[in-house]
């Protein structure tokens, strides 16, 4: 009987939307959903809100649709709904209809990932959802946001990051393209994800249609096995390739040699030194250097900047490398 009642309500509200009674329908969707939530009939509420959000967005009522979409995610969280295919499909249904300019999309995404982190098995949120959202931002040309999601996505995400890195580099006349590849590959390696770093590297080379100017031998294993690797005009590409090969063997000495050789280059870009230190710690248990704080200088900075001199804010790698990494 309850299911029949829900179906009748859905039909009635859908008719209101089809008749152009958008405000009335919007308010009724919220009222009935609120009633269901008070009765802890969360599945009925979610079905209703999903239907309302989709119907209103299909009728170009994105503000009202967004409000119901956000209410649906509030209900997901309230119900502690498990992260499964059906629950994710509802999210995708709505995201496919969300205009990129609708301000409520940001809140919807925030609530969605909070839900997948709280009720799913991945601390960063569901990888498939990150892949979808990252791909969406990439297609919209929002490369920084796309990178943030794709880095914690799937194999497809890693491949797409290769294309993204090359596309992003084409918008920067001040730096070579290799630095955009390096920022992604090094982040993957800092997370100890060699597979994804390799997928990104290979797809970047493919997207850029690069050919090497020469080849050189590289001792890939302690037993002395040598492989031929490409040498590129871009030092960042060479550095990234060598770092990717080095971490796949017992190469602490080679790692230190790479740091020494390429340090003058990557130390000019804020944040790269920390990524390299993270990689050394992850693969070779090399202790990260302690920050050498200057108490008087920190105090002066605090006085003039009005902030805390603690320096303990989490580092995020975002934005164009030409501007530095935060």
TrEMBL record:
Keyword annotations from UniProtKB, A to Z: Cytoplasm, Transport
Major localization listed first in the record, in broad terms: cytoplasm
Subcellular location: Cytoplasm, Cytosol
GO cellular component terms, semicolon-separated: cytosol
Record Pfam families: GET4
Gene Ontology biological process terms, A to Z: protein insertion into ER membrane
Region of interest: Disordered: 306-326
Bias-annotated ranges (Polar residues): 310-326
Family: Belongs to the GET4 family.
Entries under PANTHER family matching the protein: GOLGI TO ER TRAFFIC PROTEIN 4 HOMOLOG
The name this protein goes by in its record: DUF410 domain-containing protein
